Amino acid sequence: MPTAAELELQKVVKATHSAEDLLAGDHNILDQFMVMFEEGFFKPIIYWQLLSVIVPIFIGWLVFYWLRKKTLNAYAQKLAMEHLEKSQRIEGITDEEGAAEKAKTKEELFWLGIKRGLFSLFMSICWPLVSLFLIFICTVTARLFKLLPQQPLPIESVVWLILCAFVVIRVCVFIIHHSFRAGRAASSLESFISFSLWIGVALQVVGVLPKCREWLESTKFALGSSDVSLWSMLLSFFTIALALFIAKWLGQLAEKWLNSMNGLHTNLKVVLIRILKVALMFIAILIGLSSVGIDVTVLGVFGGAVGVGLGFGLQKITSNYISGFIILLDRSVKIGDLVTVSGVEGIVADIKTRYTVVRAFDGSVTIIPNESFVTGNVKNTSYLSGPGRTTVAISVDYSSNIDDCINTMNDIVRSQPRVLINPAPYTILTNFGNDGIDLTSYFWVADPERGTAVLRSNISRAILKKFNEKGVNIPFPQRDLRILQMPEISCKFETGTPAKAAPEPKES
What we know:
- One of its GO terms (molecular function) is mechanosensitive monoatomic ion channel activity.
- The chain crosses the membrane at residues 45-67, 118-145, 157-180, 192-210, 230-250, 271-290, 296-314.
- The chain is α+β, with helices and mostly antiparallel strands.
- It folds into three domains: 4-218, no CATH class; 298-380, SH3 type barrels; 388-470, Alpha-Beta Plaits (2-Layer Sandwich).
- The chain is 61% helix and 11% strand.
- It contains 15 helices and ten strands.
- The chain has helices at 4-14, 19-24, 29-40, 44-92, 99-144, 154-179, 184-206, 208-218, 230-260, 266-291, 298-313, 315-330, 371-375, 402-414, 453-470, and strands at residues 220-223, 226-229, 338-341, 344-351, 355-359, 365-369, 378-380, 388-396, 426-432, 437-445.
- It has a five-stranded antiparallel β-sheet with strand order 6-5-4-3-7. It has a three-stranded antiparallel β-sheet with strand order 8-10-9, covered by helices on one side.
- The longest helix is centred in the first third of the chain and has 49 residues, at 44-92.
């Protein structure tokens, strides 16, 4: 014979349903609350249910508060200080210390950033995870002592829904925060996801969400030879969007990891990053389509048609994309090179898939299609690592002491810190001009990619100042105008009284 407590337990269980029934939409949780409290408001099972949920949540909050105060905050500050120190270390590393030390510090900074990101995610979901774990322990213990039925009761189901929704929201916010730049779009997306999930939880509790799902599943559209429900279309959209968000986050994570590696060339890093991002996006789309039952083999025919369209209708764009990969793979142009292409001189700031960004010395940016680097002539000053030669030319008067002028110019050129001593600079007489003697100084610099305009200007100013002190004249064109013959000029003067003007006719 069952005891009185077991009879009361069975009475309350009859008014409840399992979590599967509740979430499947056969009954809404709010109605189960009402029925359960009407059947057994003063029964111990209600209080055991409340205790098995409220107490773990409170204990979980206390545990999280204690951990955060004792260890978590201190560890977070430690990670932040290490990150700041390594960032300052990278900025302070000079060229003499070598690029290997800088790359090693970058790699350490990358893994430290990963550790900080995961720790911040753990901090944001620690309390709900601890609470869920304690609720699980308490409910299992209560069922072992037959204080609760085997089926999850409404209070337990609601708490699980709320805490799981909180964890999902925090994870989505973490992915968005690390996938997009901070701005209005990212904040709006975070707010939209949070609002949508909380609305979904509320609709699930009151029983509206299952009915909405039934209506969406019953609403179908003809797509080719099959019918597709509105529910499957929405599910496909959200699944693909989630997969793309995760792929974008993983792509940026891989980009940071590849950029921190020391053994890879810059162009190879860019190629791997581009290929990896495209592959992740493609895999994300395939996973999203497969998860909702769409046959991905149909995409093969569609991809072939798109390829034909690209070959005929988008030849220029396709050529620029292919040229971009050629530039990156053959390393003819690298980021940071000083180039002259299509009449534009500047430093390569970035190599995109379709175009290359060249920053001129005046700060302006020119977007050049990648095809111009493959089919046209490109002057790359930085292609071969090594010194580059440049010149400074000046003219002196024919009465000047040429040997003294040459020695003066050599001394001034050698005094510049960027000019190499070996090969030694030299100055030669290059031409007997109409107005003076042309002298040209030849010298080498170790880093021509930094430009030589300022260096040549400094040398020219120093030469001009020194020549003025020594009284060396710098000729300039002068022209004398000599009039060989002045033509005779005759003037004729007439005297007399001027004729009177005719009177104006009067109007009648």
